[in-house]
Amino acid sequence: MDPDSPDVVWTRTRVLIIGRASPEPSKKHIETVCTGGITESGELLRLYPIPLRYLEQEKRYKQWSWAEFEIQKSPSDKRKESYVVRQESIKVLGHVDSETERYHLLSKGIVPDREILDAMRERDRTSIGLIEIEVQDLVARPRRKEWAKEKPYTKQTHLYVEKKPLEQPSIELQIKFRCKNNSACKTHQCSLIGWEYTEGLRSFIIKYGSLDGAFMRLREALTNRYLDRSKRTFALMGTHFKYPSWMVAQLYAFSRDIPPRLF
Ligand SMILES: [Zn+2]
């Protein structure tokens, strides 16, 4: 598909950025970041391929940025929320700083629990969802380093662009949690793929010199933030491109004192 062909119809849409997965190597775009967004009406979208670290500075949206994108339904990705973005169209409009406003915007897309998300996936291929959870633990799993074998271009230099370091993490972070609103929930364990967490692990490895030490520090930081019982914790879940399994892209902790939305 040629994105500049006159036959391709792009729709301009405004979304709040609510999650960014770790960058993945890409043959065409060097690397891409799969991004989760929510519209003002509460529709959840998956946006890609976006080489976020290689975009011009003013296009590099952050978590909680409002941004505008020209999008169209992905022809190759059957997940119903997946949209292809026209890179040149990205415009960062602003940033939401208020915790109350963040919660109110996010709450339009929240469903009660993972079990309901499973039913929605079966019914209409829902592949993104927000749920309230109780975090139990952060777990490290050894991972097979498949990039070197499956994505040989990862190591290649680029003719026109100075490539930024992108190493495949040697462990997979997983989060163990229960659904807050379902007393019958039997605990879930999912990959934690948010960029913030893999980047945290990477910087802790540099700081503490060992993978074990780095993981322990990350576990401590994340459990302090998300096991705080004075807060309500939510998770942005998304399914894998190839498999129906759910992954966690972003965690949120909100004060219990936020009043309900009035509009
Ligand atoms: Zn559950």
Structural topology:
Elements: E1 11-20, E2 24-26, E3 30-32, E4 35-38, E5 44-48, E6 65-73, E7 82-85, E8 91-95, H1 99-107, H2 114-124, E9 128-142, H3 147-150, E10 171-179, E11 188-191, H4 195-208, H5 211-226, E12 231-239, E13 246-255
Parallel strand pairs: 5-7
Antiparallel strand pairs: 1-4, 1-6, 2-3, 4-5, 6-7, 6-8, 9-10, 9-12, 10-11, 12-13
Helix pairs in contact: 4-5
Bound molecules: zinc ion.
The site of zinc ion (ZN) has 7 residues, from helix 2.
Care to describe what's here?
The chain has helices at residues 99-107, 114-124, 147-150, 195-208, 211-226; strands spanning 11-20, 24-26, 30-32, 35-38, 44-48, 65-73, 82-85, 91-95, 128-142, 171-179, 188-191, 231-239, 246-255. The protein is α+β, with helices and mostly antiparallel strands. Helix 4 packs across helix 5 (211-226). The longest helix has 16 residues, at 211-226. The chain is globular, with a radius of gyration of 19 Å. The model has no long low-confidence stretch (mean pLDDT 91). Zinc ion is lined by residues 113-115, 179, 182, 185, 188.
